[in-house]
Amino acid sequence: MSVVSWLRYSLFLVALSAARPDSAADRAVRAATEGLRRSGTGRTTDDQSGQLRGLQLSPDDRVWDAVAAVSERYRGRNSVILANFVGAALVTAQIIAVGFPWEGGGHFGRDVVIFGSAGAVYLIAATVTVDYLGRRRANQILTWVRERREPTTHEQSSTLFLPVAVAGEIFGRWLFGALLAATVEGALGYPLLYALRVGLVIVLAGLTSAALSFLLLERSGRPVLQLIFACEDQPVVMFGLRWRLMLAWVLSGAVPIVLLGTAPIGLTASQRAGLPVSLMVIAAAGVVAGLAVTFALTRSLVESVNDLQIAQRMVRQGDLTVRVPVDDIGEVGLLKAGFNDMVYGLRERQQLYDLFGRHVGTEVARVALAGSARLGGRRCQASVLFVDVIGSTTLAQCLPPESLVALLNEVFAAVVRCIGKEDGWVNKFEGDAALCVFGPPAENIGHSTAVLRAARALRVELMALARRYPGLDVAIGVSSGVVVAGNIGAEDRYEYTVIGDPVNEAARLTEQAKTVPERVLAAHGTIVDAADEAQWWQPYEVMKLRGRSDPTNTFIPVLCAASSFRVYSDTPRAK
């Protein structure tokens, strides 16, 4: 009996450890599903329209060849043969170890030949039958693989149910074989209890074979399952944790208990003498085998949890390209798919934030995505920097449109770079001009200092750019004060901007800066609010700005007074 128990679970675990998908094919299919689910859930982006669409399977023949190779293993021939071989070995070993219920007997050899021949014939016939039926079912189910297309909902469910169906057919054949074997034993004249014991042994072996075939098929077909779960419509749970735990209990608990309970059945008096030792060995073997089987059945669960933990850590660190392979037909698979959906949503939100931020500024995008976007605004202190390209009409006449656009893009790139370094943002581009804001929507109390630093840095960058484009000339105006910052427009179309006197003043200062050799003018109010930056600015003139009744005290950067900064002609240029 002890030999039987050890042999049973040793064969089971050896076969289970061999149930590994082919690494080369798996890697190819995994690469395929990475391409199929670049967005994390099987949704890909149309390069033409940018619209989300459903699953589009790769036209790469190498990918489909790999899928076909895996699907061939998923059809079940090797799994069925191996599972039935393990079952036959278990039955043979247990019948030999149990012994016959009487000693000797002239018909011993005849019975062995009859029973062994009948068992071998039935085993071969049952294996061939299950293999034929399983492959026919698989050929029908896996039509989508041959046709290289997305599976339908019915094909998804059928593909996921294939291991369960094959395991059920195997157990059914073993159950019928148990009835047939008990009948043959009875016909040969053996005691009824012994015949029942033989039938029970065959049923338990069939249960082990069915469970083993399920595990073999599931593990070998995981790359195919990845394609199933790559579809936009997620399939339902086919074999969840509840059934897996019950299967683990049956194999690791119920089977050893039944063996212990039926050990004395059909034994002679002489055979019962060594029964206590056999029971102890069976119990020990059951404990060890139970731990091993439970470990084998929970290994995939632990691996999945580890994958999720690693992926979660990567997402927490900001990596939104992570994707967990979905290769389980139970709740764990749906959990993985849900995690991928979540990451896809986060990635989509991040892409929206990046795209939105490029249009309106990252700070405004953050406020809008936080749900604070509504019509109206609030009074606040702000600083405004206005930039305008001088002589853009002349440039448009002298340069091709493409060259003019490239020139403006370089100018605005310098604007965005200098403004961003000082925590400002570009509110809008208006042709050859740009309106930049410091302060709102965040509460930046040092916005006056920041805008003056940005103006000086921008002037230096634009002068360097002018050495590459001799016809380039840019004016800068800076002002600070009270504005209303908020969303202006209608309920279905609005934009975030700032409105107030500082905006108008900055625009008028930019007009006057076109006549100033330094090309930069700042209002007195901005200098007053920026004590740390004031040392780099000097008074220029008191100007009467267009549209304003009061005169404005203006300032220019100190360095701009140096002759080295006068890279342009002192003759003012009109726009």
From TrEMBL:
<feature type="transmembrane region" description="Helical">
    <location>
        <begin position="273"/>
        <end position="297"/>
    </location>
</feature>
<dbReference type="InterPro" id="IPR001054">
    <property type="entry name" value="A/G_cyclase"/>
</dbReference>
<feature type="transmembrane region" description="Helical">
    <location>
        <begin position="112"/>
        <end position="133"/>
    </location>
</feature>
<dbReference type="Pfam" id="PF00211">
    <property type="entry name" value="Guanylate_cyc"/>
</dbReference>
<dbReference type="GO" id="GO:0006171">
    <property type="term" value="P:cAMP biosynthetic process"/>
</dbReference>
<dbReference type="InterPro" id="IPR029787">
    <property type="entry name" value="Nucleotide_cyclase"/>
</dbReference>
<comment type="similarity">
    <text>Belongs to the adenylyl cyclase class-3 family.</text>
</comment>
<keyword id="KW-0732">Signal</keyword>
<feature type="signal peptide">
    <location>
        <begin position="1"/>
        <end position="24"/>
    </location>
</feature>
<dbReference type="GO" id="GO:0004016">
    <property type="term" value="F:adenylate cyclase activity"/>
</dbReference>
<dbReference type="GO" id="GO:0035556">
    <property type="term" value="P:intracellular signal transduction"/>
</dbReference>
<feature type="transmembrane region" description="Helical">
    <location>
        <begin position="81"/>
        <end position="100"/>
    </location>
</feature>
<feature type="domain" description="HAMP">
    <location>
        <begin position="299"/>
        <end position="351"/>
    </location>
</feature>
<feature type="transmembrane region" description="Helical">
    <location>
        <begin position="194"/>
        <end position="217"/>
    </location>
</feature>
<dbReference type="GO" id="GO:0005886">
    <property type="term" value="C:plasma membrane"/>
</dbReference>
<keyword id="KW-1133">Transmembrane helix</keyword>
<feature type="domain" description="Guanylate cyclase">
    <location>
        <begin position="383"/>
        <end position="510"/>
    </location>
</feature>
<keyword id="KW-1003">Cell membrane</keyword>
<feature type="transmembrane region" description="Helical">
    <location>
        <begin position="247"/>
        <end position="267"/>
    </location>
</feature>
<dbReference type="Pfam" id="PF00672">
    <property type="entry name" value="HAMP"/>
</dbReference>
<dbReference type="InterPro" id="IPR003660">
    <property type="entry name" value="HAMP_dom"/>
</dbReference>
<keyword id="KW-0812">Transmembrane</keyword>
<keyword id="KW-0472">Membrane</keyword>
<protein>
    <submittedName>
        <fullName>HAMP domain-containing protein</fullName>
    </submittedName>
</protein>
<dbReference type="InterPro" id="IPR050697">
    <property type="entry name" value="Adenylyl/Guanylyl_Cyclase_3/4"/>
</dbReference>
